[in-house]
Amino acid sequence: MNPYVEYMREIAQPMRDELTHAGFKELITPEQVNEFIEATEGTTLVVVNSVCGCAAGLARPAAKASLSNDKTPETLVTVFAGQDREATEQMRDHFGDLEPSSPSMALLKDGKVVHFIPREDIEDHEVEEIVSNLTRAYNQYC
């Protein structure tokens, strides 16, 4: 493996672990994304993870904290922008006309986006604001 790619995977592993330890399933190939979307029913939170500071300080903490709400998505998945590029691109294809954004979060119902939080609604916001945004969507769709 290319030393740079190996180094970046090593650096990103704790960022992956933060979500997988919270119960998110990683989708790392386009095939895994397609299989998931085709088989999914009910509600799913998709976190498009990244190495940026707003993912570390805002998106991942907010996604995890939102799970203490009374209503939560049935399924939790994540793709990693910049690391698993093909899987991320494939997931974004399922988001329709939404502009690519990382980090970002999408609430899906039966595989269709019903709520989307792009980077601009994460960056420069407080964790509590993002949690509130997510929990309002959970209360409406879950």
Folded structure, characterized:
- The N and C termini lie far apart (42 Å).
- A hairpin with a 2-residue loop joins strand 4 and strand 5 (112-117).
- Helix 2 packs parallel to helix 4 (85-94) and helix 3 (53-66) packs across helix 5.
- The chain is α/β, with parallel strands linked by helices.
- It has helices spanning 3-20, 30-39, 53-66, 85-94, 127-141; strands at residues 25-26, 43-49, 75-80, 104-109, 112-117.
- The model has no long low-confidence stretch (mean pLDDT 95).
* Classification by helices and strands: alpha/beta
* Sequence stretches where pLDDT stays below 50 over 5 or more residues: none
Shape: globular
Strand order of the largest sheet: 1-3-2-4-5
Number of strands: 5
Number of helices: 5
Largest sheet: 5 strands, mixed
Mean pLDDT: 95
Rounded to an integer in angstroms, the radius of gyration calculated over CA atoms is: 14 Å
Question: SSE string, helix = H, strand = E?
Answer: HEHEHEHEEH
Helix content: 40-55%
Task: Bin the strand percentage.
Answer: 15-25%
End-to-end span in angstroms? 42 Å
